[in-house]
Amino acid sequence: MTDFFQDQPLRIAGHAFTSRLLVGTGKYKDFDETADAIAASGAEVVTFAVRRTNLGQEDGPNLLDVVPPERFTLLPNTAGCYTAKDAVRTCKLARELLDDHKLVKLEVLGDDSTLYPNVVETLKAAEELLRDGFDVMVYTSDDPIVAQELERLGCCAIMPLGSLIGSGHGIQNPHNIRLIIEQANVPVLVDAGIGTASDAAMAMELGCDGVLMNSAIAHARQPVLMASAMKKAVEAGREAFLAGRMPRRQSADPSSPFAGRING
To answer: Where are the stretches annotated Disordered (predicted)?
Structure first.
């Protein structure tokens, strides 16, 4: 019997991960639900908004009690930043709070109604952060040219949106996502817009190296159950991509051949 195929780990900035599902920590009812959902997701990388998260700099519940750095790879993000200057300052704050932590998720938003990325400010912030020694995973539009430029600057992962942040509309432009994947030499992860398990599976079947999500799990009626569903969807989508889907045909092709059949 042939051994079951063993996938290679996801590698980002010198880190190796078995799970290709990355999750956020916002929008849960409390830290207990956050912890349970993260556990059910099987995620090894957990992202959080530096500006909105207590890491011990204030009294009260501390995220690090729920997501201990010795168990998870923390991914501080710049959610809520609308300029390159603010994003860079936020990443430097994260580095101070987390003892010289270098891996960050950069996002610079264009406005607070669409939360669409401002690619001009994103490029500016990426360049400055990379010069300062950060490992930058970057949230961006699904524009293949912008993605290519971010990789050229040195970003360690490109994270195009599937659709607007928190919208749950899934992947609206799979053709562009595929173009980004085909030209990339660094991991590509869909970030934003995932609504349910089939969206996550679709991202992986396109050839994405991973998926990052928060709202799709936290806003589900049963977040912990949805986290488990997302774990399975990412795994199934990855295996389907590696297996290679059957070709699409214009006509039927019977599973059982007519030749050699027994006639009554």
So the answer is: 245-264
Q: Which amino acid is at 124?
A: K
- Which pTM was predicted? 0.90
Buried b (16+ CB within 10 A) or exposed e, 49-59: bbbebebeeee
Q: What are the residues whose beta carbons fall under 8 Å from the beta carbon of 99, sequence distance 6 or more? A: none
Q: Which residues are annotated as a binding site for 1-deoxy-D-xylulose 5-phosphate?
A: 166, 192-193, 214-215
The 3-class SS string of the chain reads CCCCCCCCCEEECCEEECCCEEEECCCCCCHHHHHHHHHHHCCCEEEEEHHHCCCCCCCCCCHHHHCCCCCCEEEEECCCCCCHHHHHHHHHHHHHHCCCCCEEEECCECCCCCCCECHHHHHHHHHHHHHCCCEEEEEECCCHHHHHHHHHHCCCEEEECCCCCCCCCCCCCHHHHHHHHHHCCCCEEEECCCCCHHHHHHHHHHCCCEEEECHHHHCCCCHHHHHHHHHHHHHHHHHHHHHCCCCCCCCCCCCCCCCCCCCC
What lies within 8 Å, CB to CB, of 202 at 6+ separation is 170, 171, 174, 237
- Cα–Cα distance for residue pair 100/250, rounded to 1 Å: 57
List binding-site positions. 166, 192-193, 214-215
- Cβ atoms of 216 and 168 within 8 Å: the answer is yes
Backbone φ and ψ of 77, nearest 5°: -125, 165
Question: Any idea which residues carry the catalytic annotation?
Answer: 105
